[in-house]
Amino acid sequence: MFRTVAELVEIAEKENILISEVMIRQEMDVKNCTRDEVFADMEKNLEVMEQAIEDSLEGVESVTGLTGGDAVRIQTYMKEQTPLSGNLLLDAVSKAMGTNEVNAAMGTICATPTAGSAGCVPGTLFAVKNQLNPTREQMIRYLFTAGAFGFVVANNAFISGAAGGCQAEVGSAGAMASAAIVEMAGGTPQQSADAFAITLKNMLGLVCDPVAGLVEVPCVKRNAAGSSLAIVSADMALAGVTSRIPCDEVIGAMYRIGKQMPSSLRETGEGGLADTPTGRLLKEKIFGMSV
Amino acid sequence: MKYNSVFDIIGPVMIGPSSSHTAGAARIGLAARNFLGKEPKWARIHLYESFAKTYKGHGTDFALAGGLLGFETDDPRMSKALDIAKERGLEIEFVEDSAKVDHPNTARLMIGNEDENIELVGISIGGGKVEITELNGFELRLSGTHPAILIMHNDRFGAIASVTKILAKYEINIGHMEVNRKDVGKEALMVIEVDQNVDDAVLKELENADHIIQISKIVS
C-alpha cells in the first residue's frame, strides 16, 4: 500500500504502469474484488457526476437563493463571445461551479474528495474531454488517478474544511484534478505529481469561511478557482515545469498550516467572509436571527 | 491508515451540501440506529464546534435524523428527514454544546425506545468518512461501515481467546479488534470488525463462550 506520493510514483515507474493502475490494483487487493467490480463502482460515480453537470446546465437555484444560475450564465457567454481565458478553461469553470450549484441546491453529487469541493474533478474532466476525446475507460481512470493523490492527502493531512480549511478541500480537489489531467493528456507519473504540487502550493493558506455556515458563498466560486488552477498547473507540468518543493512536502506544509488555523477559519462560519458586514447580513436574513 | 479505499476519496454519492456535515452526519445517525438494532423513539443529540455552529446551514440536523431513520447518504428523502421522523413518531432534540472536544465535527447521540437506550459519540473526519469513538461510556474506534460484533464480557483471562476461537472455526476474518474495560476485573467491551456479516448461529455460540454477558452485532 502506498503512503506517499513518492511511493506512488515509484511503483508506477518501476512497474511501468499508470498512476490509475496502481490505485486500481490496490483497491482490488484491499476489497478483494475483481477489476470489473472496481471499474463498475467507479463508473457509477462518473454517471452521478455527469448527471449533476447536466442538471446544472438546465439551471438550478439553492433554497436560500444565494447560489445558482452562474454555470448557465458562463455557458451563454461562451456561445455569444470569445472568452479571454479560453473555451476549455471556462468550460471547466462553468461545469465545476455547476456541480457545486447542484450540491448547494441539495441535489445528488459525488463527493470528490468532499461535497464542498465536488466540482473540481468532474468540471475539469468534462471540459478536457472535449479536446482529448478519451475513451470511457480513460474517463474512469481519471477518477482513479485523482483518487490516488487524494488518498495520500487524506491519510497524511486532511480533506475537510473543518479540520484544515479550504486548502484541504478545494486545494486537494484542484490538485487531484491537475494530476488526473496530466495522465489523461499522456504525461508521466512524475509530471502528475508536479502538477499536483503546483496547484496545492497555490492554494496553501486558503481558509474555510462560509457565509452563514452554508456550502454556497464562497464555496461555489472557489471551485472555479480550483478547476482553472488545475488546468494551468497541468499545462505547466506537461511543459516540463517542475515543483521545487516535492509533492509530499507540500502536503506536509498544508497539514501544518491547517493545524495553525484558528477554529474561526475552519468551517465554523465565524471568520473571514462570513464575518463581513454583508456576510453577517445574509446570515441574519436567512436564519432570521442576529449574530 | 484512516482511509483505505479510493471510494472514500471519490465518493460517496450523496445529497448535498456537505460531506462532513451532511453525509458524515447521516452515517453517524445510521451507526447509532444499527447499535440500537431498531428504529429509536427518541433522540437527544449534542453537537460540538463546527457541527454546533453550522448544523442548520449544512443540514446536519436532517442528515442525523435521516441516519436514525435508516437512510443511506444518497437517499432522496434526506432533506425531508425531520418531517418524516415526526410522522414516524421519532422525537429528536438538538443541543448546541460548547464543551471542548478533540475533533471539530463531533456529535454525541443518546437514542432509545421504551425498553433500551444507547449513547454514542461519532466524529465526521472528512469526505463523508466517520468514526465511532465512544459507546456507552467505552472508548473505541470503529468505522461504522463494516459489520461488527460487540461483546460485553467480564474482564477475565480466556474471554478473548474463547471468542476468537469460535470466529476462527467459522473462518471469519477479523479486520480490527479492540478491548476496553472500565476497571480491572469489571465489565469490558470487545469490539470486533469483520469482513462479512455474521450469522445468528455464530452469535448464539458466542453467547455461550466463557465470561460473556451480552452480544450485539452491526450489519452493513
From TrEMBL, chain A:
<protein>
    <recommendedName>
        <fullName>L-serine dehydratase</fullName>
        <ecNumber>4.3.1.17</ecNumber>
    </recommendedName>
</protein>
<dbReference type="InterPro" id="IPR004642">
    <property type="entry name" value="Ser_deHydtase_asu"/>
</dbReference>
<dbReference type="GO" id="GO:0046872">
    <property type="term" value="F:metal ion binding"/>
</dbReference>
<keyword id="KW-0004">4Fe-4S</keyword>
<dbReference type="GO" id="GO:0003941">
    <property type="term" value="F:L-serine ammonia-lyase activity"/>
</dbReference>
<comment type="similarity">
    <text>Belongs to the iron-sulfur dependent L-serine dehydratase family.</text>
</comment>
<keyword id="KW-0411">Iron-sulfur</keyword>
<dbReference type="Pfam" id="PF03313">
    <property type="entry name" value="SDH_alpha"/>
</dbReference>
<dbReference type="GO" id="GO:0006094">
    <property type="term" value="P:gluconeogenesis"/>
</dbReference>
<feature type="domain" description="Serine dehydratase-like alpha subunit">
    <location>
        <begin position="15"/>
        <end position="274"/>
    </location>
</feature>
<keyword id="KW-0479">Metal-binding</keyword>
<keyword id="KW-0456">Lyase</keyword>
<keyword id="KW-0312">Gluconeogenesis</keyword>
<comment type="pathway">
    <text>Carbohydrate biosynthesis; gluconeogenesis.</text>
</comment>
<dbReference type="InterPro" id="IPR005130">
    <property type="entry name" value="Ser_deHydtase-like_asu"/>
</dbReference>
<keyword id="KW-0408">Iron</keyword>
<dbReference type="GO" id="GO:0051539">
    <property type="term" value="F:4 iron, 4 sulfur cluster binding"/>
</dbReference>
<dbReference type="InterPro" id="IPR051318">
    <property type="entry name" value="Fe-S_L-Ser"/>
</dbReference>
From TrEMBL, chain B:
<dbReference type="InterPro" id="IPR045865">
    <property type="entry name" value="ACT-like_dom_sf"/>
</dbReference>
<feature type="domain" description="ACT">
    <location>
        <begin position="148"/>
        <end position="220"/>
    </location>
</feature>
<keyword id="KW-0408">Iron</keyword>
<dbReference type="Pfam" id="PF03315">
    <property type="entry name" value="SDH_beta"/>
</dbReference>
<keyword id="KW-0411">Iron-sulfur</keyword>
<dbReference type="InterPro" id="IPR029009">
    <property type="entry name" value="ASB_dom_sf"/>
</dbReference>
<dbReference type="InterPro" id="IPR005131">
    <property type="entry name" value="Ser_deHydtase_bsu"/>
</dbReference>
<dbReference type="GO" id="GO:0006094">
    <property type="term" value="P:gluconeogenesis"/>
</dbReference>
<dbReference type="GO" id="GO:0051539">
    <property type="term" value="F:4 iron, 4 sulfur cluster binding"/>
</dbReference>
<dbReference type="GO" id="GO:0046872">
    <property type="term" value="F:metal ion binding"/>
</dbReference>
<keyword id="KW-0312">Gluconeogenesis</keyword>
<protein>
    <recommendedName>
        <fullName>L-serine deaminase</fullName>
    </recommendedName>
</protein>
<dbReference type="GO" id="GO:0003941">
    <property type="term" value="F:L-serine ammonia-lyase activity"/>
</dbReference>
<dbReference type="InterPro" id="IPR004643">
    <property type="entry name" value="Fe-S_L-Ser_bsu"/>
</dbReference>
<dbReference type="Pfam" id="PF01842">
    <property type="entry name" value="ACT"/>
</dbReference>
<dbReference type="InterPro" id="IPR002912">
    <property type="entry name" value="ACT_dom"/>
</dbReference>
<keyword id="KW-0456">Lyase</keyword>
<keyword id="KW-0004">4Fe-4S</keyword>
<comment type="pathway">
    <text>Carbohydrate biosynthesis; gluconeogenesis.</text>
</comment>
<dbReference type="InterPro" id="IPR051318">
    <property type="entry name" value="Fe-S_L-Ser"/>
</dbReference>
<comment type="similarity">
    <text>Belongs to the iron-sulfur dependent L-serine dehydratase family.</text>
</comment>
<keyword id="KW-0479">Metal-binding</keyword>
